[in-house]
Design a protein that fits this description.
There is one protein chain. The chain is an alpha+beta fold. The chain has one domain (2-138): Alpha-D-Glucose-1,6-Bisphosphate, Chain A, domain 4. Helix content is 28%, strand content 39%. The protein contains 3 helices and 8 strands, in the order ββααββββββα. The protein has helices at 18-26, 28-31, 113-138; strands at residues 2-3, 7-14, 38-41, 48-52, 58-67, 71-76, 89-98, 101-109. It has an 8-stranded antiparallel sheet with strand order 1-2-8-7-6-5-4-3. It starts with a strand and ends with a helix.
Length: 139
Amino acid sequence: MTVLEDRVENEVTIAAPRELVWEFFTDADRLVQWKGRTAELDPRPGGTYRCTIDDRAVVVGEYLSVSPYDELSFSWGWEGDPLVPPGSSTVTVTLTEVSDGTLVRLVHTGLPHPRLGVHDAGWTHYLPVLVTAAESTSS
């Protein structure tokens, strides 16, 4: 994991095909297997991205770009958070086929300095959960 001036960058390799990994970012049932309790997703430009993580944390945004199996981006923010309000930052996910599965590169931009560490810790926690969920589904 890398924290830069206004962004967090993360990479993980998942022993699963890109098409399956893609579903974990675009299908509500798959998303909650690795992040959150409930999700409402409409994976098309302008479509809803909403995930209830727990009783206090709800992520709200919209899909900005969708290139199936290759890359997607969505806006991101938290209900009730004045520093990172809904839609105020951007998450871009790139999926690359590699010999042992899929390389997932996640870049979260537009974060204010006071929230960089929190978001780095969040992605550092959740991406390994994604690896486990996708790999267990793939086998």
